[in-house]
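Shipment paperwork, digital attachment
Item: protein structure file
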Amino acid sequence: LVWRIAIPSMLAQFVSVLYSIVDRIYIGNIPKVGDIALAGVGVCGPVVTLVGSVAFLVGIGGSPLMSISMGEKNMRYAERILANCFLMLCVLSAVLVAVIFPLRGQMLMMFGASQTTYPYAIAYFTTYLLGTTFALLSTGMNQFIICQGFAKIGMISVMLGAVLNIALDPLFIFGLNMGVQGGALATVLSQLGSCIFVLAFLFSKRVPVRIRFGGYRFSIMRQVLKVGF
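Attachment content:
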């Protein structure tokens, strides 16, 4: 059971890192400004990681609790946990964008952007922020697919995003001459693809515990945050 769940999860992490590298290879090969553009995108790394950590706060905080409830045959409470986590990710993604968007310039400068790299960093990060909801939902809700025993489906959702990103990068960066902004747009669309796949699966009848609406409790949210933090 450990191997059956661990290997697809490990491969998903590997693919995730791989397409991040491929993304930067494309950006680094933009004619004339590739090296500066790559440096600008690199500055966004810590901020992107900071945003992404919220997905793990909820996903890794809620999925073990849901697994425990399923093990206790308390499917009703497991559904409540999933419903609360879905709501939390939606709300937190909106809050993140609202807080970070006006401060994005200062944050990038704080993380090392210079006058030369700043235009590329701000172009990439501004576009990337538009896909925050997709990124958090695809990553965070994917944990609830894996914890129900569908590790291969979880891996497929990550690979779907990777394939889309690798295919769309050259189209937007070089084909449409959008530069770093095209790279960010390709990432956003790939996250959207993964998000649709994950949510479609969790709303379907293929899983024992599906996303439902209602049953929201502050006590459940507090417990999720306590574990996730």
